[in-house]
Amino acid sequence: MFESPIIAAPMAGGTTTTDLALATQRAGAFAFAAGGYKSAEQLAADIGPLRDAGTGFGVNLFVPRTGPLAAADAAALTAYRSELWATAARLGADVPTAPAPEDPRARDFWEEKIELLLREPVLVVSFTFGLAPVDVVAALQAAGTWVMASVTSVAEAVAAAATGVDALVVQHRSAGGHSAAFLPATASVLTATLPQLLAEVHAAVNLPLVGAGGVSGPAQARAALDAGAVAVALGTALVRTDESGARQLHKDALADPAFAQTRMTRAFTGKPARALVNDFVREHSATAPDAYPEVHFLTAPLRAAAASSGDAQALNLWAGTGWKSAQDGPAAAVIEGFLREL
User: Strand 177-178's sheet: what is its strand order?
Assistant: First the structure.
């Protein structure tokens, strides 16, 4: 399915730039464009240069929530907005209301991006935060696209396989940034290592698997491949590279010994995500509601203000558990280092 055992993971929010995707592609990895948080027009502009390069690539999309927030979560969201005002005042930022359900941003421009990828197919489309409807999976496949679903447990893998996808991205909880989880946690979510999780999923479904989470060096990549993965995805390992679009404040924090641990938190977006522990994580994790993407829109101005003022204590510093191994310099050097050792 992939010509390379290394995949450059799609990191939404600006980290995966076209330059990063092209650099990793040229170095021998399979590249993805990150479609999250983008309109169809923005996504089309991103994938144009990848298409011009003449090599296969993928696109990742976020699956939107299908219904309204539960009443308890809606009430918690209102309370959380009030809680954020003190931090916003310190940063000189606003705390906006979330977009209305009919606003295309609330569904991450889902319909428009599916239409784009059916009209202008790419080699692979992967989905995160849920399962694409069966008819969408079938339509993409009919257009010549391989379809992948992101899962974090055996239960999610079985549910994803039932939709007819061609392969799975198996994400371990050690991954940086957002968890792909879409079902209540089960025992396999807490599996100690990525190779163990891959082995459990491999025993439950007959699909190619991509390992993700905690792949901080070639040794972790080899262990995942030996456990049955056809490839591994690199995320945090690429955040500090020259072509990465991550904020410099974020890149610097990954190399700053003052940040000593990571934690799963809903504080920034309303969805569990692993980040370096800073003041914002400490102050707001306990009260942040299960409300994505609403919380994402509430905190966006605060995160932008923190970045502008150089305040790493209020920024979402996404990081996997192996963040200390992340290197600066050209992305090609990271990819080539992995491939050389493998």
Answer: 177-178, 273-276, 262-265
Q: Burial of 325 by CB count in 10 Å (0-12 exposed, 13-18 middle, 19+ buried)?
A: middle
Q: 203 exposed, middle or buried (CB, 10 Å; 0-12, 13-18, 19+)?
A: exposed
**Cβ-contact 108, 62 below 8 angstroms:** yes
CA distances from 50 to 2, 12, 121, 157, 158 (A): 16, 16, 13, 29, 32
Nearest CA to 60 out of 157, 132, 156 is that of 132
Count of helices and strands (H, E) across the chain: 13, 11
What is the pTM assigned to this prediction?
0.96
Measured distance CA(69)–CA(77) in Å, rounded:
9
* Alpha-carbon span 286 to 266, nearest angstrom: 9
- pLDDT digit string (tens) for 162-178? 999 999 999 999 999 99
Distance, in Å, from the CA atom of 231 to the CA atom of 169, rounded to the nearest integer, reads: 9
Of 100, 154, 110, residue with least CA distance to 136: 110
